[in-house]
Specification:
Layout lengths: L7 E4 L4 H12 L4 E5 L2 H11 L3 E5 L5 H11 L5 E4 L10 E2 L2 E2 L2 H26 L11 E6 L3 H4 L5 H21 L4 E8 L5 H4 L3 H9 L10 H13 L7 E4 L9
Parallel strand pairs: 1-2, 1-4, 2-3, 4-7, 7-8, 8-9
Antiparallel strand pairs: 5-6
Helix pairs in contact: 1-2, 1-9, 3-4, 4-6
């Protein structure tokens, strides 16, 4: 069953950067298909937006589930924002022995392969769209991390997964240029998302002190406004933008 002509698919829409992005784009007049495996969070985001959003439970690593979501979103689809991801902290060799291979593979599977799964399926659908101004058919925005460039102790899996997202940005943008589809990636620094919310306040304050300016955790709404700017500026293509307040992370 097809939906009611949704403009953007936002993965990881149940919380954090994905939720803020869904709300921002809906506020700009877009209809949003909110994808997440977290039913409560995804439904909560859709409810907060209202009639301009719908929740679809989909695992980004599943070809069938993402393909069904893309088909459901309808022919007016203009792009996707990839915010779904996981983070782990595990040393290559720790007190209990070598890094678990399963946890490394799971991080790559969700953060990197899941992102590419969404890219390829959304891009295939966008090639069927009528070209707009400058021949553009759509925009795909991905989420990497500054860990892709200055990964810390215990971030081998996370940094590798996000480094992969950063690295695929230019070749995929070049692949899709002939179809009029732009591809961009944002590499956020330390943002006030559920991943950091579990930390004690002193730990959060210590993290914020490392950020040159502004010396605070990023607000997910600031990520969302950058997504909107990317969508609106057609000369932005094939690039990774660091959104980090000039932070360069220490080794640990």
């Amino acid at each position: 069953m097809q939906g009611e002509a949704y403009d953007f698919i936002v993965t990881g829409a149940g919380s954090g950067l994905g939720r803020a992005t869904a709300i921002e784009l809906a506020g700009a007049g877009a209809r949003i298909a909110c994808l997440d495996v977290d039913v409560g969070g995804g439904e909560g985001t859709a409810a907060a937006i209202g009639d301009a959003a719908e929740f679809i439970r989909a695992d980004v690593t599943s070809e069938a589930e993402v393909a069904a979501a893309v088909e459901w979103a309808g022919a007016s689809l203009a792009g996707a924002v990839n915010c779904a991801g996981v983070g782990i902290a595990e040393r290559t060799v720790g007190r209990d022995g070598p890094h678990a291979l399963d946890s490394f593979a799971r991080t790559i599977q969700i953060n990197l392969i899941g992102t590419f799964n969404v890219i390829r399926l959304v891009a295939a659908a966008l090639t069927e769209a009528a070209p707009g101004e400058d021949g553009e058919r759509g925009v795909i925005v991905n989420t990497a991390s500054i860990a892709a460039f200055d990964g810390q102790v215990g971030q081998a899996a996370y940094a590798a997964s996000k480094g992969g997202v950063a690295a695929l940005t230019l070749p995929v943008a070049r692949d899709l240029a002939r179809h009029g589809i732009r591809v961009m990636t944002i590499a956020p620094g330390l943002f006030d998302t559920p991943m950091l919310a579990a930390l004690p306040e002193p730990a959060r304050e210590a993290l914020a002190e490392d950020i040159p300016f502004p010396s605070r955790l990023g607000n997910p709404a600031e990520y969302a406004t950058l997504v909107r700017s990317i969508i609106e500026n057609r000369m932005l293509n094939g690039e990774v933008i660091r959104l980090d307040g000039a932070l360069r992370m220490r080794a640990k």
